[in-house]
Automatic annotation (TrEMBL):
SUPFAM superfamilies: PurM C-terminal domain-like (SSF56042), PurM N-terminal domain-like (SSF55326)
Designated name of the protein: Thiamine-monophosphate kinase
Segments forming domain PurM-like N-terminal: 40-153
Organism in which the protein naturally occurs: Flagellimonas algicola
Gene name linked to the record: thiL
Function: Catalyzes the ATP-dependent phosphorylation of thiamine-monophosphate (TMP) to form thiamine-pyrophosphate (TPP), the active form of vitamin B1.
Entries under InterPro entries matching the protein: PurM-like_C_sf, PurM-like_N, PurM-like_N_sf, ThiL-like
Length: 348
């Protein structure tokens, strides 16, 4: 989009800041009863009656969190929203509104921002959240995106990182490692393209993991499923940095240890085959890869019958006492200390 010389390029100066905001936000409608005032005044006005309000923000920086040479702007808009909604769902809450703030250099034409907002709009529609504000400014270099997500929950339904107890089951949604390996494939093709711009890569075998990287979905469905199954997790977190670091957060804040079983970690066949191709260990990738945006939670053992038949949910271990500490039980049945980098074979 940025490099396409044939596409229309309207400079941002032509519109001015207010014209730009109006242009980008004009087709967003308010759908939530709690959205009293959205874009257009000094601030948005929300009304959650007697429920609790949940707020989460993320900042994404070009060159650090995303690379526009393979990330289409529409996908980036979608993903920027997903990253934030995932945090709301990790509280067992319902996401209701977002704000989107942007800083862009003059290298970005209006059409590029339209693409970005098309992704934001699709995310809003799919996940039933309202865009209620933001800020727009210029940057000297590159693009910065900050999304704030707002949600709602009954106080009794909220799930923190701190509620896990020894003997609770450790459960993960979906499968892990795909987003990281998708990124490795995209990085490899970028290098090939630099050497030979006419190369036509066959990315079909990698479509699942590339989609995991470029178009992740936040697990709204899991919050709804848990409600339907009448299971309230004792603790929950979303997997943005990799399984091991998120498990360590749960252990630390809940003051527990855990036993994670390597052979239980859910992996898609594409993850296994691509890891082999890259000569990487698929367990290490699942533990340290990140960006999977799945949910990791603990439940009381008494709730196991309610979740055991569900293909979206995998029991990967259980919590132990704090004194026992966090461990990985390998396929070879050795017990090793779990570290933030994945796992260290030097301990024990
Ligand atoms: P202020 O000068 O008070 O910061 P702005 O002119 O920046 O106000 O914003 C005017 C309105 O447009 C506000 O409702 C603001 O939340 C909204 N807005 C500004 N930028 C964006 C954006 N990038 N996306 C969505 N809404 C925006
Ligand atoms: Mg402003």
């Amino acid at each position: 989009m940025l490099e396409n010389k044939n596409s229309q390029r309207t400079t941002l100066e032509q519109l001015g800041e207010f014209g730009l905001i109006k242009h980008l936000t004009q087709h967003f409608e308010l759908t939530q009863a709690s959205s009293l005032k959205g874009v257009g005044d000094d601030a948005a006005v929300l009304d959650f009656k007697d429920q609790k309000t949940i707020v989460s923000t993320d900042l994404l920086v070009e060159g650090v969190h995303f690379d526009l040479s393979y990330m289409p702007l529409k996908h980036l808009g979608y993903k920027a929203v997903m990253v934030n909604l995932s945090d709301i769902y990790a509280m067992n809450a319902t996401a209701t509104q977002i704000t989107v703030s942007l800083a862009v250099s003059n290298r970005f034409p209006l059409e590029a921002l339209e693409e970005f907002y098309a992704g934001v709009a699709q995310a809003c529609k799919m996940y039933q959240v309202d865009l209620v504000g933001g800020d727009t400014t210029s940057s000297t270099k590159g693009m910065l995106i900050s999304v704030t997500a707002i949600g709602v929950a009954n106080e009794d339904d909220l799930v923190y990182r701190s509620g896990a107890k020894a003997n609770d089951l450790l459960v993960v949604t979906g499968d892990l490692g795909g987003a990281y390996l998708g990124l490795q494939v995209l990085e490899r093709e970028k290098e090939v393209f630099k050497v030979n711009p006419n190369s036509q890569p066959d990315l079909d075998p990698y479509s699942y993991i590339i989609e995991r990287q470029l178009k992740p979905e936040a697990r709204k469905d899991i919050v709804e499923l848990l409600d339907k199954l009448e299971v309230k997790p004792t603790a929950m977190i979303d997997i943005s940095d990799g399984l091991s670091s998120e498990i360590l957060h749960l252990c630390e804040q809940s003051e527990t240890g855990c036993n994670l079983f390597e052979d239980k970690i859910p992996l898609d066949p594409t993850v296994i085959s691509t890891a082999e191709e890259f000569k990487m260990d698929s367990t290490t990738i699942a533990l340290s890869g990140g960006e999977d945006y799945e949910l990791l939670f603990t439940i009381d053992q008494a709730d196991f019958p309610k979740i055991k038949a569900n293909p979206n949910l995998t029991v990967i271990g259980h919590m132990t006492s704090k004194e026992e500490g966090p461990h990985l039980i390998t396929r070879a049945n050795t017990k090793i200390a779990l570290t933030a980098q994945g796992w260290s074979s030097f301990n024990k």
